[in-house]
Structure formats: C-alpha cells, structure tokens
Design brief:
single chain, ECO RV Endonuclease, Chain A, three-stranded antiparallel β-sheet, 40% helix, 22% strand
C-alpha cells in the first residue's frame, strides 16, 4: 500500500503550489519570528505549522492529528493515524538537523544509544537565493541507512563541555537520506519578495474590536 505522503509528490497542481508558495510562507515565518533583525528559535515551530497546514489542505482536517503528546519526541503530526516527523534547516551543508532538543548531556547520550527511526519524515531545505527542496524520506530509508552505517556516523552528540542544544543527524547521514532513490523530492528555488509586514497590526485590530 503506497504511503499517503507520496500523493503530495504525484499531485502536479500541489507540487507547483509548493514551489511558488512555500518560500513566501517561510519568509513570513521568519518575519513573524524576528526581533531587531534576528530570527528567533520559534521560527522552527512556525515552519512546522505551515507544513501541517499543507497536510490539512491536501488531506482534510479530519485526517490530520495535531494534538501530539510531548513524550513522542520524533512526531509532529499524524496523517491517517500514521506518525510523521517534520524537519527544516537553512543552508546548503545539511548539518544541524535535530533528532531531539535537550540540554541534559546524559539524556542526549541515552537517546543516541537507544534511538531508532520510528516514523516517516518530511524534510525542508531552505536556501535563500538558490535551490533547496521539499523531501519525503520514508521510514524504511531511515532505518536502512542507520542499519548500514555505524551509529556514530548517523547520530551527532553535542560536544562535551558546551551548552548542548540537542542530538543531531550527521551531515553525511542527511545527505544519504535525501539522495536515496526512494526519497521523493520537489526542487524549490528560494527567492524572497518584498513584504509589508507589521507584527502588531493583527493584534491592534483585535484590540479595536467592539
């Protein structure tokens, strides 16, 4: 039975919309998450919301479960009951993709020793001014790669003595995942446009309501 996520990549109208609309929406996410010209960490959550909204747009709200327990570290959403992970990065070196966010060094070590992929992944590579992509990486592809390379070549722990931000997928593993023949992809040209953005306008309007 084909995975429902594959339907996104077979829908020509939707793939064209992703190519043209996603850069604009992610640019809005950056503007919403910026202060004094610096993008805050909350941008990741806004991007996830945008991707979940894409799933709702395609598959209808009744088939997209968003109330996910925080104990399910890898899962952002469930589609037709199947868990899905959503990952995004900015840049071209494919490093920094988090498997889990934690500031506890011991917890990071335990996670790295016990981690085994548990769900399909939607991955977005943002590359402003150049090409990036929107990828569907099946669970089987993730497990196969982890089984075939040493765990330390798949999982990157924070350096000892630093302020850890979490456990990451290595750059080499991320490249292996997106280059796999079973991974689906949409190439996106990431160009910014002029946007008149006022972060307070919507809230001022709500305050102004009778």
């Amino acid at each position: 039975m084909p995975n429902r996520l594959e339907e996104i990549f077979e829908d020509e109208i939707l793939t064209n919309k992703i190519k043209t609309r996603l850069p604009y929406l992610f640019q809005l996410a950056e503007l919403e998450s910026s202060r004094a010209g610096k993008i805050g960490m909350q941008v990741g959550s806004v991007r996830e919301t945008i991707i979940v909204a894409l799933l709702v747009h395609k598959f209808n709200e009744a088939n997209v479960e968003t109330e996910i327990s925080i104990t399910e570290a890898e899962v952002e959403v469930k589609l037709f009951g199947m868990p899905v992970s959503i990952k995004t990065i900015t840049g071209t070196n494919f490093s920094g993709v988090k498997l889990i966010w934690t500031v506890d060094a011991q917890k990071a070590i335990e996670f790295s020793e016990n981690y085994y992929p548990s769900c399909d992944m939607l991955f977005v590579q943002i590359n402003w001014g150049g090409n990036g992509g929107f990828y569907y990486i099946p669970l089987a592809v993730q497990r196969e790669l982890l089984d075939n390379i040493e765990r330390r070549n798949y999982i990157k722990l924070p350096k000892a003595g630093t302020n850890p931000r979490g456990v990451e997928i290595t750059k080499e593993a991320m490249l292996g995942l997106i280059e796999n023949g079973r991974t689906k992809k949409i190439i996106i040209n990431w160009q910014k446009v002029d946007i008149e953005f006022n972060p307070y306008k919507r809230w001022v309007e709500l305050w102004s309501e009778e």
